[in-house]
């Protein structure tokens, strides 16, 4: 039976391609039809509308930008008898309400956000977090294998999304710290490559630092995880923290910096473009 996949953006397209290349019978749809052409070339069927996806499949993955994009699709389709798998990042409150709406319409709902950016998405090395009805989660989990190197059952909705937000809090503060350290070394006249080599040889090195450090070194701001998306995630995390009465001092600094990054016109660049905001706050070098 075909699996549906809606949303072929920076993350969705490589994820769907990995499903198709693994032999998963796939029916895809994207609002911008050109994004579906690589899927067609990989053997996936391309639907004319989301209505067609829901009519022909019983399980539909949705990798959409936000709640508004999800609502725009779901208000057009018949959900009864389908399992809706929400793989994007939204607020926990939205996901909880979506579960109720899907259930009321006769469908099943699985929350399945992923950790990782474009490069691990292309490599099938994402990490998935799942929440929802245990039987539905058990059915969906094996389908993730071509996209994800690991998956974790996190319990009830919205605990998968809360886990994803906690992971993203660490990611945002870590990459911002790496970028600030790079700026510090650069402005003190250090050999930037040597600094990054020292960092890579020590205990602070990670898969993320090894992905982002070369971009900083070469000034490559091509998108893996976009600054505007990071700001969106930052707002979600901050709202969840405030709702629970939690302080988030490091996140709040990052929130301001990414807000400034986007205001400077770098929203479509990779998250290491936060360097521009840090540079803008710094006193210009003499001479």
TrEMBL record:
Q: So what EC number does this one have? A: 1.1.1.60
Active site (UniProt): 164
GO biological process, alphabetically ordered: organic acid catabolic process
6-phosphogluconate dehydrogenase NADP-binding domain boundaries? 2-152
Q: Which residues form the 3-hydroxyisobutyrate dehydrogenase-like NAD-binding domain?
A: 163-277
What is the similarity comment for this entry? Answer: Belongs to the HIBADH-related family.
Q: Under what name is this protein listed? A: 2-hydroxy-3-oxopropionate reductase
Query: What species is this protein from?
Result: Actinomadura macrotermitis
